[in-house]
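To illustrate this point, we now present one chain and its tokenised fold:
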Amino acid sequence: MNFRALTQILIPAATLLVVSCGSEFDGSYSGYVGGKEILLHLEEDKKAQITGYFPDTLEGTWKEEDILGKSAIWVSFEGPNEKPFRLRFELQPEGKGLRVTGIKARPLGKGTKLTPIELKGSPILSPKI
């Protein structure tokens, strides 16, 4: 088989493999954070949803970060229009789950900054199958 024929087979196959593989973190996770049972869903298209932390289900986005050589996941949510705020969960992979390393929130408006919310311990969100 010549080089040209080989590339005509390998390039489409490699493209299909990359496109069809989602992130290793997409899926649903559950656990207790601040005494509340939450369900966090991370979608392959970087959209996120959280239920149980706030009275309403919140929608947002997530991204993987590299912080000082460690993998981290930041998930940001917007509060409802009648109470606009931003909520960010900071997570680190731990085994098959995600450890909550921080939660920060702020009201939306000019000059506001994210304020840490005190966590008791280091809650783990486990994959929900």
